[in-house]
Amino acid sequence: MEICLAVLCGYLLDLILGDPHWLLHPVQVMGWCISGAEKFLRR
Prior knowledge:
By secondary structure, the chain is mostly helical.
């Protein structure tokens, strides 16, 4: 029961607060790094 309550609280907080739009997602940054490295290495 405690796990269900914790998941519900986390879900509700995520709905209310959401993700900040100014903060970059780590996957996006990794993609930029991989693209840059690939362009550099394929010269």
